[in-house]
Amino acid sequence: MGKRRWLRRMLGVGAVAGILAGVVVAASTVWVSRQATGHIYDLEDAPAAPVVIVLGAQVRDGKPMAYLSGRLDVAVQLVKDGRARAVLVSGDAGGRSGDEVAAMTEYLVEKGIDRDVIVGDPYGLDTYDTCVRAIHTYGVTKALVVTQEFHVPRAVALCRDAGIDADGVNAGCDCSVFARARNTIREPLSRPKAVLDLLSGRDPAVVSARDDALAKALARQD
Fold first, then answer.
1. What gap in Å lies between CA 82 and CA 189, rounded to an integer?
2. Which of 35, 91, 120, 139 has the most CB atoms around it within 10 Å of its CB?
3. How far apart are CA 142 and CA 128, in angstroms?
4. Which of 29, 43, 35, 4 is nearest to 170 (CA)?
């Protein structure tokens, strides 16, 4: 009988924990949605901004993989259309798959973007860090943020909360159905952490002195 009571108690605790987790995920999803509403566009409808921020992702053999190349292709088009004047590529320069920032920079140059308008942030270790560093390290106050549609609401919400007048632009991806489904399912689970980061007001993992590279890149075009 004691084992049965213990089992019922554990099932009850598990059920309560599951409900609480569901509430947390739902609440954080509502917050992200409210922050991002009206600030997400497809490429053809995207507004202009001085800077386009490209969020890092995995690379392979020094080349962007599908998610990242999709983001970079959108940034290329925004610059060539005159809707952005400089690109901030933000990722992990010491990532497990390789140097995301170097890979992004070379990809953009190969696509015809002037190296002088590309600035790399090697310490954009997650979306929150990218947004906070963009404003405090690189002085970004208005920007377009490019990533895939499952991710872009959180990126916009975090950047806007950090103080950037940010609009998101959906990027495509030549990805498998499985990869798309996996990331779409995983994304809501990332939102509670985003809210926790904001509530804590934590510093990014790496805090750097002010860098005027982006301001100089923009000034060259004035």
1. 36
2. 91
3. 16
4. 43
Query: What letter represents residue 15's amino acid?
Result: A
pLDDT tens figures, 12-47: 555 444 444 444 445 555 666 677 889 999 999 999
d(CA 98, CA 59): 6
Q: Determine the pLDDT at residue 150.
A: 85
pTM for this model (two decimals): 0.84
Q: What's the burial of 48, exposed, middle or buried (CB within 10 Å: 0-12/13-18/19+)?
A: middle
The tens digit of pLDDT for each residue in 131-158 reads: 999 999 999 999 999 999 888 988 999 9
Q: Which CATH class is domain 2-219?
A: alpha beta
CB under 8 Å to 73, separation ≥6 — which residues?
111, 171, 172
182 close to 150: Cβ distance less than 8 angstroms: no
In this predicted model, what pLDDT tens digit does every residue of 157-200 receive, in sequence order?
999 989 999 999 999 877 666 566 565 666 656 666 777 777 78
185 token code pair: 């399912």
Q: How far is CA 67 from CA 13, 46, 50, 93, 152, in A?
A: 39, 19, 24, 17, 13
Taking the C-alpha atoms of residue 64 and residue 71, their distance in angstroms, rounded to an integer, is 10
Q: Quote the CA–CA distance of 27 and 110 in Å, as a whole number.
A: 42
